[in-house]
Amino acid sequence: MPLRSTKVPRDAVHHPVFARVYAKLSVAAETSAGIAAYRQELLSGLSGRVIEIGAGNGLNFAHYPSAVSEVVALEPERSLRHLAAQAARSADVPVDVVPGAAEALPVKSEAFDAAVVSLVLCSVRDLPRALAEIRRVLRPEGELRFFEHGLAETKGMARVQRALDRTVWPLLFGGCHTARDTVAAIEGAGFQLGTFRRLRVPESGLRLPSSPCVLGVARRPFSETAGG
Asked: For domain 16-219, which architecture applies?
Protein backbone atom coordinates (compact mmCIF):
# COMPACT_ATOMS: atom_id res chain seq x y z
CA MET A 1 0.00 0.00 0.00
CA PRO A 2 1.39 3.44 -0.90
CA LEU A 3 1.74 5.17 2.45
CA ARG A 4 2.41 8.80 3.23
CA SER A 5 3.38 10.24 6.58
CA THR A 6 0.69 11.75 8.81
CA LYS A 7 0.63 13.33 12.25
CA VAL A 8 -2.82 11.99 13.05
CA PRO A 9 -2.57 9.42 15.89
CA ARG A 10 -3.31 5.78 15.12
CA ASP A 11 -6.51 5.92 17.18
CA ALA A 12 -7.73 9.39 16.31
CA VAL A 13 -11.31 8.31 17.12
CA HIS A 14 -12.22 6.43 20.28
CA HIS A 15 -15.86 5.61 20.99
CA PRO A 16 -15.71 2.12 22.55
CA VAL A 17 -19.26 2.07 23.94
CA PHE A 18 -20.83 3.43 20.76
CA ALA A 19 -18.71 1.06 18.66
CA ARG A 20 -20.08 -1.99 20.51
CA VAL A 21 -23.68 -0.79 20.16
CA TYR A 22 -23.18 0.21 16.52
CA ALA A 23 -21.68 -3.15 15.62
CA LYS A 24 -24.80 -4.95 16.84
CA LEU A 25 -27.38 -2.52 15.47
CA SER A 26 -25.72 -2.19 12.07
CA VAL A 27 -25.81 -5.94 11.47
CA ALA A 28 -29.52 -6.05 12.31
CA ALA A 29 -30.20 -3.04 10.06
CA GLU A 30 -28.75 -4.82 7.03
CA THR A 31 -32.09 -6.58 6.60
CA SER A 32 -34.53 -4.72 8.85
CA ALA A 33 -33.77 -1.31 7.29
CA GLY A 34 -32.72 -2.57 3.86
CA ILE A 35 -29.13 -1.32 4.24
CA ALA A 36 -27.63 -4.35 2.49
CA ALA A 37 -29.46 -3.48 -0.74
CA TYR A 38 -28.16 0.09 -0.58
CA ARG A 39 -24.61 -1.19 -0.09
CA GLN A 40 -25.00 -3.39 -3.14
CA GLU A 41 -26.17 -0.42 -5.22
CA LEU A 42 -23.41 1.78 -3.81
CA LEU A 43 -20.62 -0.56 -4.90
CA SER A 44 -22.04 -1.95 -8.12
CA GLY A 45 -19.75 -1.57 -11.14
CA LEU A 46 -16.60 -0.61 -9.24
CA SER A 47 -13.24 -1.81 -10.51
CA GLY A 48 -9.53 -1.33 -9.87
CA ARG A 49 -8.07 -0.01 -6.61
CA VAL A 50 -10.56 1.34 -4.06
CA ILE A 51 -10.10 3.23 -0.81
CA GLU A 52 -12.90 2.98 1.73
CA ILE A 53 -12.93 5.66 4.41
CA GLY A 54 -14.54 4.80 7.72
CA ALA A 55 -15.07 1.11 7.05
CA GLY A 56 -16.74 0.50 10.43
CA ASN A 57 -17.20 -3.21 11.05
CA GLY A 58 -16.67 -4.08 7.40
CA LEU A 59 -20.23 -4.60 6.21
CA ASN A 60 -19.40 -3.25 2.73
CA PHE A 61 -16.74 -5.88 2.09
CA ALA A 62 -19.14 -8.63 1.03
CA HIS A 63 -20.60 -6.41 -1.69
CA TYR A 64 -17.48 -5.44 -3.64
CA PRO A 65 -17.61 -6.78 -7.23
CA SER A 66 -14.88 -9.11 -8.49
CA ALA A 67 -13.48 -6.41 -10.81
CA VAL A 68 -12.09 -4.63 -7.73
CA SER A 69 -8.42 -5.57 -7.47
CA GLU A 70 -7.79 -4.19 -3.97
CA VAL A 71 -9.60 -2.36 -1.18
CA VAL A 72 -7.66 -0.26 1.32
CA ALA A 73 -10.12 0.18 4.18
CA LEU A 74 -9.41 2.83 6.80
CA GLU A 75 -11.09 2.73 10.18
CA PRO A 76 -9.96 5.00 13.03
CA GLU A 77 -11.92 3.32 15.85
CA ARG A 78 -9.94 0.41 17.30
CA SER A 79 -12.74 -2.02 18.16
CA LEU A 80 -14.54 -1.46 14.85
CA ARG A 81 -11.23 -1.88 13.03
CA HIS A 82 -10.80 -5.27 14.69
CA LEU A 83 -14.24 -6.36 13.46
CA ALA A 84 -13.46 -5.03 9.99
CA ALA A 85 -10.26 -7.08 9.88
CA GLN A 86 -12.30 -10.19 10.67
CA ALA A 87 -14.76 -9.36 7.89
CA ALA A 88 -11.90 -8.78 5.45
CA ARG A 89 -10.72 -12.37 5.85
CA SER A 90 -13.93 -13.69 4.30
CA ALA A 91 -14.26 -11.08 1.54
CA ASP A 92 -14.12 -12.18 -2.10
CA VAL A 93 -11.69 -9.37 -2.99
CA PRO A 94 -8.39 -8.42 -1.28
CA VAL A 95 -9.09 -6.03 1.62
CA ASP A 96 -6.38 -4.40 3.73
CA VAL A 97 -7.77 -2.84 6.93
CA VAL A 98 -5.59 -0.06 8.36
CA PRO A 99 -5.87 2.75 10.93
CA GLY A 100 -6.29 6.26 9.64
CA ALA A 101 -8.47 9.38 9.76
CA ALA A 102 -10.39 10.89 6.86
CA GLU A 103 -8.75 14.28 7.35
CA ALA A 104 -5.23 12.90 6.78
CA LEU A 105 -5.36 9.81 4.58
CA PRO A 106 -2.05 7.91 4.88
CA VAL A 107 -1.79 7.17 1.15
CA LYS A 108 -0.18 8.81 -1.86
CA SER A 109 -1.96 11.21 -4.20
CA GLU A 110 -3.83 9.86 -7.23
CA ALA A 111 -3.42 6.27 -6.03
CA PHE A 112 -7.01 5.02 -6.35
CA ASP A 113 -9.64 4.52 -9.02
CA ALA A 114 -12.51 5.01 -6.58
CA ALA A 115 -13.29 6.08 -3.03
CA VAL A 116 -16.20 4.84 -0.93
CA VAL A 117 -17.87 6.52 2.03
CA SER A 118 -20.95 5.08 3.71
CA LEU A 119 -22.52 6.64 6.80
CA VAL A 120 -19.21 8.25 7.77
CA LEU A 121 -19.12 11.86 6.50
CA CYS A 122 -21.65 12.75 9.20
CA SER A 123 -19.05 12.01 11.86
CA VAL A 124 -15.75 13.32 10.47
CA ARG A 125 -14.41 16.24 12.46
CA ASP A 126 -13.53 18.43 9.47
CA LEU A 127 -15.75 17.67 6.47
CA PRO A 128 -14.12 20.03 3.92
CA ARG A 129 -10.66 18.71 4.81
CA ALA A 130 -11.84 15.09 4.57
CA LEU A 131 -13.34 15.67 1.13
CA ALA A 132 -10.19 17.46 -0.01
CA GLU A 133 -8.17 14.42 1.07
CA ILE A 134 -10.49 12.08 -0.82
CA ARG A 135 -10.14 14.22 -3.93
CA ARG A 136 -6.36 14.19 -3.53
CA VAL A 137 -6.04 10.40 -3.44
CA LEU A 138 -8.32 9.81 -6.43
CA ARG A 139 -6.96 9.60 -9.95
CA PRO A 140 -8.38 12.11 -12.45
CA GLU A 141 -11.97 11.08 -13.22
CA GLY A 142 -11.88 8.72 -10.24
CA GLU A 143 -15.25 8.09 -8.62
CA LEU A 144 -16.51 8.97 -5.17
CA ARG A 145 -19.33 6.63 -4.19
CA PHE A 146 -21.37 7.91 -1.25
CA PHE A 147 -24.22 6.63 0.92
CA GLU A 148 -24.65 9.16 3.70
CA HIS A 149 -26.96 10.80 6.16
CA GLY A 150 -28.11 14.20 4.94
CA LEU A 151 -30.10 17.29 5.75
CA ALA A 152 -33.83 16.63 5.45
CA GLU A 153 -35.75 18.34 2.65
CA THR A 154 -38.68 19.09 4.97
CA LYS A 155 -38.19 22.20 7.12
CA GLY A 156 -39.56 20.61 10.27
CA MET A 157 -37.19 17.66 10.31
CA ALA A 158 -34.27 19.86 9.25
CA ARG A 159 -34.91 22.07 12.31
CA VAL A 160 -34.96 18.99 14.54
CA GLN A 161 -31.69 17.74 13.01
CA ARG A 162 -29.94 21.08 13.55
CA ALA A 163 -31.16 21.34 17.14
CA LEU A 164 -30.02 17.82 18.01
CA ASP A 165 -26.68 18.31 16.27
CA ARG A 166 -26.00 21.23 18.62
CA THR A 167 -26.88 19.21 21.71
CA VAL A 168 -27.05 15.48 22.41
CA TRP A 169 -27.01 13.61 19.08
CA PRO A 170 -23.22 13.68 18.41
CA LEU A 171 -22.52 12.72 22.03
CA LEU A 172 -24.82 9.70 21.86
CA PHE A 173 -23.97 8.51 18.37
CA GLY A 174 -20.21 8.63 17.95
CA GLY A 175 -19.92 12.20 16.64
CA CYS A 176 -22.71 11.86 14.05
CA HIS A 177 -24.17 15.14 12.68
CA THR A 178 -27.32 14.42 10.71
CA ALA A 179 -27.87 18.01 9.54
CA ARG A 180 -24.84 18.19 7.26
CA ASP A 181 -25.73 18.96 3.64
CA THR A 182 -23.64 16.16 2.19
CA VAL A 183 -24.41 16.78 -1.48
CA ALA A 184 -23.59 20.49 -1.23
CA ALA A 185 -20.37 19.68 0.62
CA ILE A 186 -19.25 17.21 -2.05
CA GLU A 187 -19.96 19.68 -4.82
CA GLY A 188 -18.30 22.48 -2.86
CA ALA A 189 -15.17 20.35 -2.51
CA GLY A 190 -14.68 20.41 -6.28
CA PHE A 191 -16.28 17.12 -7.28
CA GLN A 192 -18.52 16.82 -10.32
CA LEU A 193 -21.82 15.37 -9.14
CA GLY A 194 -23.22 12.44 -11.07
CA THR A 195 -26.51 10.71 -10.39
CA PHE A 196 -27.78 10.60 -6.83
CA ARG A 197 -31.06 10.00 -5.06
CA ARG A 198 -32.47 10.85 -1.69
CA LEU A 199 -33.72 8.06 0.55
CA ARG A 200 -35.58 7.53 3.76
CA VAL A 201 -33.96 4.79 5.87
CA PRO A 202 -35.90 2.79 6.83
CA GLU A 203 -38.50 3.44 4.13
CA SER A 204 -41.39 2.94 6.54
CA GLY A 205 -41.95 3.09 10.26
CA LEU A 206 -40.49 5.57 12.73
CA ARG A 207 -38.80 8.55 11.12
CA LEU A 208 -35.58 9.51 12.89
CA PRO A 209 -33.18 12.45 12.43
CA SER A 210 -30.84 9.92 10.81
CA SER A 211 -33.49 8.68 8.34
CA PRO A 212 -32.86 11.19 5.50
CA CYS A 213 -30.02 9.78 3.39
CA VAL A 214 -28.49 10.26 -0.03
CA LEU A 215 -26.87 7.68 -2.30
CA GLY A 216 -24.91 8.56 -5.41
CA VAL A 217 -21.69 9.12 -7.28
CA ALA A 218 -19.36 12.04 -7.99
CA ARG A 219 -16.07 12.34 -9.91
CA ARG A 220 -12.82 14.14 -9.48
CA PRO A 221 -12.48 16.40 -12.56
CA PHE A 222 -10.00 15.19 -15.16
CA SER A 223 -8.29 18.58 -15.50
CA GLU A 224 -7.62 19.00 -11.78
CA THR A 225 -4.14 18.61 -10.33
CA ALA A 226 -4.00 16.95 -6.94
CA GLY A 227 -2.26 18.60 -4.05
CA GLY A 228 0.36 17.25 -1.63
From this structure: 3-Layer(aba) Sandwich (3.40)
- Pair type for strands 95-98 and 192-200: unpaired
Q: Where are the domains of the chain?
A: 16-219
Q: What angle do CA 30, 196, 58 make, to 5 degrees?
A: 30
For the chain, 228 residues long, give each residue's pLDDT as a single digit of tens: 444 434 444 555 555 666 677 777 788 888 888 999 999 999 999 999 999 999 999 999 999 999 999 999 999 999 999 999 999 999 999 999 999 999 999 999 999 999 999 999 999 999 999 999 999 999 999 999 999 999 999 999 999 999 999 999 998 888 899 999 999 999 999 999 999 999 999 888 888 999 999 999 999 998 765 444
Alpha carbon 165 to its chain centroid, in Å, reads 19
